[in-house]
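Database export, one record per block. Field names are fixed; values are copied verbatim from the stored entry.
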Amino acid sequence: MMKVFLTSLLFLCSSSIFAHKFYVSIADLAYNDIKGRIEGSLKLTAHDFEEVLKAKFNRSFLMEEVQDSSIVGRYVQLYLTQNFKVFSEGKELVPNYLGKEVSLTQDLYFYFTFSAIPNPQSIKIYNTILFDLFPKQQNIVHYTFKHQTKSVTLVPTKNNGIIVIE
């Protein structure tokens, strides 16, 4: 009886390791006045993003093993450009993907820049990262311009927002 109890307890604990109640991504964007570009990072949970890849390719991947130059790596970049967009004065900014990393705690970071910004004081953010898989997903975006930071939280029912810094 004790063996059944311990096995059940172990199963419950191990199945909840990757389960979580909150689905959040955090994007940090900052305007670099010297280089005239927006520099950014996007942080989310690696296993959540791995679900995107599993849905697309019908097989499991570990993000730390995905090479940026591989077919899967190029799909990751395509997914990011389709689901995370920045606009300035109605013009969609072209992202320059720099790479990714996975921390020991399974946080996944993507790094990118945006150049040729018509008006860096006012940007529109469109972020639908993981909305198709997790209906409770929240995507928080912080934008810093000239030492001022403003934020917007995007959800599936409101997938874009405008940040204006005076």
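Remark 1: Strands lie at 24-32, 37-45, 84-88, 91-92, 95-102, 107-114, 122-127, 138-145, 148-154, 160-164.
Remark 2: The mean pLDDT is 89.
End of record.
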